[in-house]
Amino acid sequence: MLPLPVLNFRGSILSDISIAVFPALPGLTPAAMALAERLHLPLASSWQEICDYLLVLTPDYIGLQKAEATSSPLYVDFLRGKMNYRAQHTSIKNESLARAMGLKGKTNPRIVDATGGLAGDSFTLASLGFEVTLLERSPVIYTLVADGIQRAQKDPRIASSVNRMRLVHADAITWLSDLKPQDQPDIIYLDPMFPERKKSALPKQEMLILHDVVGEDNDAEALLKAALACAVKRVVVKRPRLAEILALSPAPSFSLLGSSSRFDVYLR
Question: Cα–Cα distance between 187 and 176 in angstroms, integer?
Answer without folding.
Answer: 12
